[in-house]
Predict the structure.
Amino acid sequence: MDGTDRGGRRETGDDAVAKPTLRTIAELTGLAVTTVSRALGGAPQIALETRQKVQRVAEEIGYLPDRAAQRLRTGRTNVITLVLDPHEEILGFSTSLIRGLTEALRNTAYHLVVTPHFANAPSTDPVRHIMRNRMADGIVFSRTEPFDERVKLLLEHDFPFVCHGRTELGTPHPYVDFDNYSFSYEATKRLIGSGRKRLAIIMPPRRFTFFQHVQYGFMSAVRESGVSFELAEGVDLDSSAADIQAQVFQRLGEPNPPDGYVCGGEVSALAVMAAISDRGLNPGRDIGIVAKRTSGLFNLVRPQIDTIYEDITDAGWQMGRALLAAIAGRDPNELQILQKPELNFVATT
Amino acid sequence: MDGTDRGGRRETGDDAVAKPTLRTIAELTGLAVTTVSRALGGAPQIALETRQKVQRVAEEIGYLPDRAAQRLRTGRTNVITLVLDPHEEILGFSTSLIRGLTEALRNTAYHLVVTPHFANAPSTDPVRHIMRNRMADGIVFSRTEPFDERVKLLLEHDFPFVCHGRTELGTPHPYVDFDNYSFSYEATKRLIGSGRKRLAIIMPPRRFTFFQHVQYGFMSAVRESGVSFELAEGVDLDSSAADIQAQVFQRLGEPNPPDGYVCGGEVSALAVMAAISDRGLNPGRDIGIVAKRTSGLFNLVRPQIDTIYEDITDAGWQMGRALLAAIAGRDPNELQILQKPELNFVATT
DNA sequence: CTGTGAATTTATAACGATATAAATCAGGTT
DNA sequence: AACCTGATTTATATCGTTATAAATTCACAG
């Protein structure tokens, strides 16, 4: 008669008690709903006594604010979205990132939504969609390009985000990046230091910002010592393992093959190792390898090879923290983080 | 004066146009908001002409329903939550699961929220929290136990869920499981068939349902042929790789060591391989290994070993579809899926 | 006793959608 | 022409919260 309805909700068993709302607390304390809201929301100009009473009652009845209502009223979603890339097929890059992110969001009001970026669709699609529908308060993504369209779009709309990797746009924005220059420089030096004479490197795809950092590090080290070198042709870190394997395999059958490889990822490193093994050679001894690793996998792979560690879980954590700061309005210049590599070289016998 | 406010929202640039709502469409078409809502919602008793007009206008202005408002009014969240386990350190189990889930949710109204289950906290915590705050319409989780507390709780509250793995509770409920009996049976037969005489197996932790399936498959195969066997003592699939490695290493130095290993996961398989290599033996030749794999990793590991494939992406996809069906109220008996293993045995030379 | 201003509290109106019930319209009967 | 019936459309109330503005309380000066 009064139009009351249960909103079509599914009753959750017989012990289902009416969910406590601000109104419940208001009735119990004899205060107005507004007052309760402000008391819990930390608004000024609420008598200390009142605030404490409200907080006590809220605690007692296990009140938790209704996210949907808050979101509808305030426009804040309390959600941050990770745009998941269709790459990273085999290993746990995303898992580590997610682990770090959830850790950073622990005990905050924020939830993590994971949304895929489907192959073939423009990279800006998920970002557009999220902004247009206000589906999140902030966005996290990886595989940043020097003039990344997503970054441009987000900057234009003044929408909070943190990306994994830098850009070359003039505008400062938050990011977490790994020092890929140091990685490839140190990796290359290591190979040179162990007497390798012709170095090859499997590069990231050209379009990513870190392509240049990796190249620069490699070239610097190579030039300093004058050894000969090549960039693995026709394949990159996004190539299928089979393609990388084939390329390396073929190259090893040609004149003047590389005797040292720098690999920017675990899959490529395994592919290179497999190709070397399949030629009857011993990876790490006959042909040197230094790989970037992002997990504990290479502790278990035999023979052991030199690796340089990029801590993705930490990156996720940093990105989470930076994003929260960005949402809170902190200066982006303070939210630019560069992770240092950790060298794990096998003891030389 | 009329109390209108912008809800504290951040303006998104100068091109920020008022976000289209039902009201916008109502004004453009001259219909009532209610009619528009019902036309778009597929309600019956709407004139075909009206419906088409509304849909056309909605399309034109790019209307998308406000999730928060729908959620507040209907109590449906359009969210499904994946409870992420703190295990699965190295490899991409969760990534694959998430990939499958997002694929299943593609073009549905549902979003995927990932929430961690922090170590040390009771496994029921995340489930309780989600149900209590109606934070999702359905839940997905893995590592199911025979008398799983989460399953009990969810069944009690009649809350939609799908778990990875079965239970031994009498009540039927949706699940996606892998045929671990076949896995270990076939793995064991393979070792026996290649002449191994003393088999060892690294078991899942006792508390999981699939412990029993794995054990049963192993024991069946072993009994049929009468070879001797052992269960790796003191370690299981959740042990650190280092511990597994140490155990195997030690065992190989004792009298009557195993000459064949069944490994239920990629990490344990690598650990076993590493231990064998470190003893100067050749994995796969001197000591047989059959491992369950959940990624393409073992295509790249040398020497190649026999594997049996569990398709986790497919499992995620199945779980997503089953969960949507469960939310729609389908009979749980129709939502019990058993995945078949795929044998990838290395060609014998 | 009254007026003043600061400190608190409260009433009201939204946010955008949908469930319910009531109202309108068309077409055919009698 | 008045009446009924079924097909459509619409008005109203509500989900739980918060922004705004108005109202109340209280201590104290005049």
Remarks:
- Residues 53 and 59 of chain B are 10 Å apart (CA to CA).
